[in-house]
Amino acid sequence: MDLSQNLQQATSQLAQAQQKFDKADNELRLMRSSREAFIKSLRYTGLSYAHAKSKYDNCHDEQDHIHHQALLNLQHAEQHRSSLILQAKDQAVAA
């Protein structure tokens, strides 16, 4: 695979990583904004406040982890694409 194909693939991967990060960011923001409603809905199922809060905290932690992983993947994709751009510039200068 030549450099231009690698760069196209890296650009595609970066776009996918950005979409996944945006989705994870939105889901985390929504979860944080609906904390009380989330806990209240669990309380209607018969759970105690402490148990419902614990379930919310567990869900929040999981979503926070997903968000963090998406951020790391996005940063990696950005760095990979940047390194390919630098390689392409170096090749252009050398040619």
Characterise the protein shown here:
The protein has 95 residues and is an all-alpha fold. It has one domain (15-94). 91% of the residues lie in helices and 0% in strands. It has helices at 3-33, 35-43, 49-94. Helix 1 runs antiparallel to helix 3 and helix 2 (35-43) packs across helix 3 (49-94). The protein is rod-shaped.
Which helices and strands, and how do they pair?
Blueprint: H1 3-33, H2 35-43, H3 49-94
Helix pairs in contact: 1-3, 2-3
Give the ordered list of helices and strands. Answer: HHH
Largest sheet: none
Percent of sequence in beta strands: under 5%
Strands, total number: 0
Shape: rod-shaped
Q: Percentage of helical residues?
A: over 70%
In terms of per-residue confidence, which ranges show pLDDT below 50 for 5 or more consecutive residues?
none
Provide the gyration radius in Å: 21 Å
Q: Structural class, judged by helices and strands? A: mainly alpha
Annotation field: number of helices: 3
Number of domains: 1
Mean pLDDT: 95
- End-to-end Cα distance: 19 Å
